Amino acid sequence: MSDATTTPASSILAREAAHFGGLAAEWWDPKGSSAMLHRLNPVRLRFVREAVNAHWGADAATRRPLAGRSALDVGCGAGLLAEPLARMGAATAGLDAAPENVAVAAAHAEGQGLAIDYRAGSVEDLGEDERFDFVCAMEVVEHVADPAPFVAGLARALAPGGLLVMSTPNRTALSRLALVTVGEGAGLIPRGTHDWSRFLTPGELGALLGRAGLAVTETRGLSLDPRRGFVLSDDVTMNYLVAARHA
Fold it and tell me: What is the spatial distance between Cα 56 and Cα 78, in angstroms, rounded to a whole number?
């Protein structure tokens, strides 16, 4: 099978699914190949929580701001974000291109007593009547065959009045240095994880969201502070997160 092969009517790149599926067994090991995701996750969750509070006017003190709502984590891996979404009260589904990830995610959720609907496939596989109040795709858009139909698929999955959150690296000299040259070169990130040419700038992602009928409501940078580790900031040079809603 060629590296460029995609499944029919799908945004999945076979080589990307194989790469991440090969990491499935270590996904929940904070010192394993997914260690960087474990370090990123608290910051991503902070952005999610702030976006949810702002979008629905949730009480910052409540532990279940998504109670009574549905959530979809696209490119869920082994469930690092899907499980917190379920704990925030959402009826949660997780979608991933690698069946190996879905199997690990389902087993881990069961061990945690969480009922999460994990599925292997692409966002294009969702039924026409499947809509979710909250949709997220974290560090995924840079790994798909074509970002435009992928973003359009996310928009179709978003229920009226819903909230979409995405994160992705910016295509800058800093991101190439930090994520590819140093990150992968030093073994901090599994080699072959990133193709810098596929990174999107905030303007490019915003344009794709606009064409899909969504409007960006917030953009924040995800930066590395030498003292505190990964933090939310106004610097989008390396990585950034966006919140969006139907225009």
Answer: 28
Q: How far apart are CA 24 and CA 17, in angstroms?
A: 11
Q: What is the pLDDT of residues 184-196, one digit of tens each?
A: 787 778 787 888 8
Edge-to-edge strands of the sheet including 239-246? 117-120, 91-96, 70-74, 132-138, 158-169, 239-246, 214-225, 229-233
61-96 pLDDT tens trace: 999 999 999 999 999 999 999 999 999 999 999 999
Give Cβ neighbours of residue 78 (< 8 Å, ≥ 6 apart).
Answer: 24, 27, 28, 34, 101, 104, 105, 108
Angle between helices 14-21 and 99-111 (to 10 degrees): 40
Dihedral angle at the C-alpha atoms of 234, 236, 241, 246, nearest 10 degrees?
A: 90
Which residue blocks in 146-235 are alpha helix, DSSP H?
A: 147-157, 173-175, 202-211
Domain 14-246 has CATH 3.40.50.10940: no
* Contact indicator for 231, 198 with CB cutoff of 8 Å: no
Largest separation between any pair of C-alpha atoms in the chain = 51
Give the H/E segment covering residue 139.
none
